[in-house]
Structures are given as C-alpha cells and as structure tokens.
Amino acid sequence: MTRKIEIVEVGPRDGLQNDPVLLSTEMKIEFISRLIDAGVNRMEAASFVHPKLVPAMADSAEVMALAPRLDGVKYIGLALNERGLRRALEAGCDEINYVMVASPGFGLKNQNATPEQTADLFDKIAILAHDEGVPVSVTVSVAFGDPFDGEVDPKILGMLAARAKAAGACEFALGDTIGVADPWRVRKALDIVRAQSGDMRLRMHFHNTRNTAMANIAAAVDAGIDVIDASCGGIGGCPFAPKATGNVATEDVVYMLERGGFETGIDLDRMIATAKWLEDVALKHPVDSALKRAGGFPKPQA
Question: What kind and span of H or E run contains 187?
C-alpha cells in the first residue's frame, strides 16, 4: 500500500496572519473553499489571540461561522491561553492547537511565559477541551532556534512532549518558527521527542526562510513522520519573530512527496491554481511558490 502523508493546510491562519494584505471575511471563505476543492480536509482556519496583536485574525469567529461544514473537513483554531481556548470552543472549532514554547526569550516576548509555564498552563486548560470532547494538539514554537536566545537545547523538546502527552494532547508538533532547522537536527530532535511521546502522534511545521524546509520534510518523512504542515503559496510567517518569513508551500510539498511515491490526497493542479489566485486576485502580490512558477512535472510533447 502507498504510504499516506497528511498535509495540514495552515494558509488561512499562519499564512494570512503575517501578510500585509488584510483579506475580508468573504475572501477568506473563498480561500478555504478553494482549499477544500483541492482536497484539503484538515486546516488551520482561525486564531483566537487578541485582535490588537494579530489584526488579520480579528474575524476568526465570523470565519468559523461561515466556513463550509462538510463531512471529513476539520477546522483547527489556534489558542495561546484560557480565553483563547474558550473562544475557539465557542466558535465551533473541530480541533484546538495550543502553543508551547521551547525557549524563554521568544516565549516571554510572545506569550509572556517560559517553556515550563506554557506547559503548566496547558495542564490547566486542556481539560476544557477534553470536557467538550474536542481534540487538542500542541505545537512547540522556536523548536530549533530562538531569534533572541539562539540555540535551543533539544532536551527541552522531550520535556514538553512528555508534558503534552500527560495532559492529553492528541498530537505534538515541532515548529521551526524562524526557519533555522536542518535535516540532522530534525532527526536528533525526533529521537529525543519519541523517547518521551509514546504513542502520541507527531507533526512537523517548517518554514522555508533559509531554503531548508523541503530537506527537513524529507528527513522527517524518512524518520516516520506522517503529518506535515504547509501553506498554499508559501504565504505567512510569525509576526512576533524578526524575519520569520516563509512557510513552506503546500503545492511544493505535495509535488515532492507524490514524486517520491507517497499519497497526499491533494489535487496538485488545483492547489497550484489556488496559489495563483492568491497572487493575482486575493493578495495581489507575489507568493513564494516554486510550483506556481514552474508547474508540475512536464507532460510529454506530442
């Protein structure tokens, strides 16, 4: 059987949150609908943080109210604290993604918390999602490097994985927030995390800031990871980290994986068309996608 790699589309949240263009709610719904038409069935669609901090996500409750509710399509809402988690539940998110942090420099500036404090808070608020029967996952930001503190000790990732599992997280992700990971550090980090995570599902979130995301994804897949975050068109980045640009483009990831014999369930042509729509119609600025420029594998000429 062909091995399936699940793509979690993060364009509607992580992609749009740092874009200079503020899309209307209606345009966001069109984006989401196009992604569904391309085969996406799990996506980050909303972020329940203070609207003054992330103005692009101020309409997240409205987006969730208008998003197409189709069998098999799951919407994820991001939360950093109890208020955000409660808002995500009220908005009807199918899953909540909570953020832990791997380093105090970024953590104190972004969430006003150290790594241990983000884990402590998760202990307290995860029960809210459990009580509602809503899955809650954890993403660790700056898992491979902090823009303020520099190198991150991978042992902290093992500690956070153990804390997430103990608190009932359904999935644990390593986020390369500033795009500094390399394939060898990815393998080392996964070895450490697996020793603490048991049967908890693992996911990877890479930014292509320094052109290493594809190599890191290949290393993660070779190491047995079956869930990868990606953003249509390669849009996005973190508004709280200097120069944290460059989500990896969904269509580029799909092309690489399917050429490698893996199944993603994504229609590559439709995903490329959506990246072009983002560039030409929605955002009206260039998007960082190799497949948007080059297309898929060339068809034989008659």
Answer: helix 183-197
pLDDT digits (tens, 9 = 90+) for 184-225: 999 999 999 999 999 999 999 999 999 999 999 999 999 999
**Cβ(202)–Cβ(165) under 8 Å?**
no
For 120, the token pair is 């402590």
Task: Identify residue 36 by its one-letter amino acid code.
Answer: I
The dihedral built from the CA positions of residue 240, 227, 179 and 166, taken in this order, carries a sign that is: positive
Q: How far, rounded to the nearest angstrom, does the alpha carbon of residue 47 sit from its chain's CA centroid?
A: 12
CA separation for the pair 232, 30 (Å, rounded)? 13
d(CA 266, CA 132): 31
Residue among 93, 170, 232, 238 flagged as catalytic: 238
Q: Is 238 a catalytic residue?
A: yes
The closest of 98, 243, 72, 241 to 173, measured between CA atoms, is 98
Q: Taking every pair of C-alpha atoms in the chain, what is the biggest distance, in angstroms?
A: 63
Rounded CA separation 136/277 (Å): 32
Helix runs in 226-289, H state only: 250-259, 268-277
122-128, Cβ contacts within 8 angstroms, sequence gap of 24 or more: 122/98, 122/163, 122/164, 122/167, 122/169, 123/163, 123/166, 123/167, 124/82, 125/81, 125/82, 125/85, 125/98, 126/98, 126/167, 126/168, 126/169, 127/168, 128/82, 128/85, 128/86, 128/89
Instruction: Please provide the distance, in angstroms rounded to a whole number, between the alpha carbons at the two ends of the chain.
Output: 33
Half-sphere exposure of 196 (CA within 13 A, CB side): 18
d(CA 275, CA 233): 5
Tens digit of pLDDT for each residue in 133-152? Answer: 999 999 999 999 999 999 99
**Low-confidence stretches of the chain (pLDDT beneath 70):** 239-240, 242-244
